[in-house]
């Protein structure tokens, strides 16, 4: 649809010129109509094509093309009111800009005059600016026509041309890729005859409105098209092929490589929509022909505000350094040439803080009469939430303690069997308490505690102790002179479930035993047993003196 310029709008266009660009002619605004890809000028008395070309196009020599296009044989006898159509290709350029829409990490930029530019959200960049993204740093630019240019980490581009055709505002954009990658989502250019090109040392990718990527790796340029079409050409040569959606190619010193199909989007395994650890993990099903995978994390569904990325040569991708929040992950498969495939985009939430404590006991097994659960103390913890279940999914809870104050809890006696337990940290925040995710479930088997059989008071001979055992166990035996075992009569390790001890002096003693299982598990000491050693009468050779009722003891 054509629109007629108002006088104020036309004067604004006239004042928009700069020393680098000639100001528009002082014509009657009513004589000029602007279309999507052309302008139409209604000839006035005395107008010639030379004057019109000099005033409305980029060169007065364009009068020849105007004559052919408008079928005018004698430009000096142009009837008043004749419609002179001027295509956008002949219009002069006005300067344009790019604006920083999103960023993260370290971004360096210099203007065309070499002066450094401080990059922030909303910073306006002009033609000639050079931008560098550091490690794990990202930048997204928005152009006036709502096209978007994204720079992943370790990339460098020059905004070689940022202009628009006068009157029609048709964009004329050239991005020079000096290092790394550039991803572009270009608004349709067919109607306004705009131009958007990505230049690199070897190739030029020209588009008419599309979503595409260009990657410079050593002496190769890789181009991938997700929508629209891209004409690929070696530098300073005519286009060699056009890439269609789902196609890519590699250009090197030998020439423009053929178009190949991009790998399909990877499929994610498991349920990655909720991430509960600071290290975000994604697992993908293998894609046939893939040599690796790339993941990018963004805060928006269009993945323009990228905050992290990682590559892996296997199907497991890990990323660190993210704060808790809502994100989107974009995962692509990389083929043997390094071309990225079709992306898979999924939303996910990261809730990893406050981090759970490290579990201490019990692990694997326990033989305690009273089961004690313990974990490392978290510095800012207000309390802990302990759960014990008989199933790994924690559907059958045996114990649920939502506010354990210290880093341990005595559960008392539990039935023998298999259990699972986990702990979460609770901290105080401005809006109240905040519970973090549970730690990894710990599985343990509750086995019978070691029981030392009741020992009768011993009045003569060596002391012999026996107890039940399991295959492969070893034992530590302690005999104490007091119930606290501060003074030991004996401590001994044995591989058999028995021990013979020379008879000690008369008195009361205490014995306890702990088992070491074949897998290295060290159980707790058994409940303490008290043993009384009585006095005795002996013969001259040291044998006990016997009477009819048995051994003779003192104290009778």
TrEMBL record:
Keywords: Signal. Gene3D superfamilies: 2.60.120.1440, Immunoglobulins, LysM domain. InterPro entries: FecR (IPR006860), Ig-like_fold (IPR013783), LysM (IPR018392), LysM_dom_sf (IPR036779), UCP029644 (IPR016930). PROSITE patterns: LYSM. The keyword DNA-binding does not apply. It comes from the Bacteria. This is FecR domain-containing protein. It comes from Collimonas rhizosphaerae.
